[in-house]
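Field reference: "sequence" (input) and "structure" (output). Example, Aquaporin Z:
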Amino acid sequence: MKKLAAEFIGTFWLVLGGCGSAMLAAGIPELGIGYMGVAFAFGLTVLTMAFAIGHISGCHLNPAVSVGLLIGGRFPAKDLLPYIVSQVLGGIAGAGVLYLICSGQDGFAIDPKSAGAFASNGYGDFSPHGYNLTSAFITEVVMTFMFLIIILGATDERAPAGLAPIAIGLGLTLIHLISIPVTNTSVNPARSLSQALFVGGQPLAQVWMFWVAPVIGAILAGVTYKWLGSGK
């Protein structure tokens, strides 16, 4: 239960910190943090939680990460579903708190026809810069693949001790710097679902892709690193 609670809290923080920075701080004229600030916000949520709860639950905060670690031989199958449920619920809770905060501003409303509404992910008309399904799918598969390679490598027993949170946090920052214009960056099904539930409409209809593509990328990374890291 403590592991599941840690995953809930960690995913709550990831959504509140990452999506919250996009909603509250990114677009302020002259003072806004922009894409770079949002990218660092997501990276910082993972970095801080890795130090805070990594020793409790492993700090997955992401169903795709749990799947990739399972395939890579680093995570027991019996814990997969409970972890995913905790991550999804933590993400929804984070989105709920963000909604309550945003609702305190006069005129706030979520437009389900607007790309990136409530920091949601999307493709086609719902991509921040109009990238189609193929581009979005490739982006999410490749970015999740690289994220899992970073995680599996940085947490390898042969890697420098104590530095994994920094590598993983900066890795997620770089992933966002590359892919925010394409999909608003998911690489995390729980993060995508949490926002889409509040938006509805097409962002919710498109959320399937932000489960399928990251999981495929994670599986490929798990298989690849299991081979790559096998020689000791």
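The mean pLDDT is 95.
The radius of gyration is 17 Å.
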